[in-house]
Amino acid sequence: MKKHVGLGAKSATLGVAALLALTAAPAYATEGAFVNGIGARNKAMAGAGVADQNDASAIAVNPAGLVNSGTQLNVSASFFVPKPGFTNAPFDTNGDKIPDASFSDRSDANFFLMPHIFYNKRLDANTAAAFGVYPLFGMGTDYDIPQDFGIELSTGVISAALAKRIGNVSIGFAPGIAVTVFKAKGQLLPPPAPAYTDEVDVALGFGVRGGITWDVTQGFRVAVAGSSPYFMDNLGKYRALLGGNGNLRIPATLQAGVSFDLFQGFTVSADYKLIANKTSATISGDPTTGQGFGWENQDVFKIGIEWDVNPTLTLRAGYATNTDAIPTQNVQYNVLAPATSNQHFTAGAKMQVSQNIDLEIAGMYSPNNAISGPNGLGGTGSLDMDQYEVTVGIIWRRDEPEPYK
Description:
With 405 residues, the protein is mainly beta. The protein is 6% helix and 52% strand. The chain is built from four helices and 17 strands. The protein has helices spanning 14-23, 39-44, 239-242, 281-284; strands at 72-89, 103-106, 112-124, 127-143, 149-166, 169-186, 196-197, 201-217, 220-227, 231-232, 252-263, 266-276, 298-310, 313-322, 343-352, 357-374, 380-397. A 14-stranded antiparallel beta barrel has the order 1-3-4-5-6-8-9-11-12-13-14-15-16-17. A hairpin with a 4-residue loop joins strand 15 (343-352) and strand 16 (357-374). The longest helix is centred in the first third of the chain and has 10 residues, at 14-23.
C-alpha cells in the first residue's frame, strides 16, 4: 500500500513553508481531498458562486471577481471536524465471517484549524490586485487498530493576482506557490522496511488559477474559472511509500457557473466543478502496483443563495453533491485516505457592525457516507466519514465608492 507526498525543506523557503503549512489542515476537505469552499462567504454557499465573486477571497475561486471588490482585508478561520473510519470483515474459506479477525476503527485526527488571509487593492474602477494565503488540499488519519498508524497531508497556497474589467467582461490571473507538508507513522510497508515515525517532509510547487466572468445583463452573469495542476517537488523521505519518486502533483480543477438576481438583493448561483484527479499520477495511479490511490475524476454540482435582508445583514445557504473519488475495487488501498464525503449542506451570514467592518460566519455539515469493496483478505471492507465545520471571519473595508455590480 503506497501513499503520499514529500520533499526536504530548503532553508530559503522555511518561512513560506511555515506560513502555508499553518493554512492547510490535514483533512479530507470534503470534495475528494479539496476544500469545498474558500473563505466564509464561499463556504456558506457550499463553494457555489464562481460567477458572483465580490470580495477578496475571489483570488482563490475566480480571480476575475476581484474587480467587484473594494479595497479590503478579509481574514477567516475554519474549525474543521472530520470523522473518518474503516471496517474490516475477513472471511474464512467457506465464506463465513471470522469474528476475531473483524475490526474497525475511527481516526483520532478529527480537529483542524484552517486560516484564510486575503487582501484586495482596488487600483481603479476596472482594475484590482490581490494577495492571498489559503488551504487547498489535504487528508489525514490517526488509527490505533490494528496498530498505531496514519498520515497527515496538507497543502496551502500563497498567491498574487491581477484582475481587469473590459466592458462587461472581467478576467483574472493568479499564479501561486503551493507548499505540501506530509508525515506518516506506523508499519505502512511490509518488513523489512522500517516503520515510519512522523518525520515531516515538505514539497514546494507552482500552479496558476484564472477566470473570466461575463455580465450578460444587469442581473445575470456567467463565469468559468480553473486551476492548472500544481507541479510539486518530490517528497524524498517518503519515496518508497508514495511511489512516483515521492511526487504528489495537486490535481487540476475547472468550475463553471451562472448567477442571477431573482430580485434586488437576492442572488442564486449554480455551478459545476470538475476535479481532474487523473492529472495527478499519485492520486489516480494504480494502487495494486504501489503507485497511487486509484482515484477517479469527480463531478461536483453546487447551488448557493445570498439574500441581503437589509443594509447590514446578509444570509447565505448552499448545497453541493459530488461523485465518489474512490472506486469500490480500491477501498482496501484508501484506509489512510478515506475521502468518502459526497454531500455538503451549508449556511451562513454577514453582518455589518460598523462603516468599515463586517463579521461573517458559515457552517457546514456533511452526512456520513460509506464506500464498500474487497478488502484483500477474502472479505469486505468499508470506508466512511461525516464532517462538521464552522468558519468565522472579519472584513475590514476601506472608504471608497461602491464597486461595480
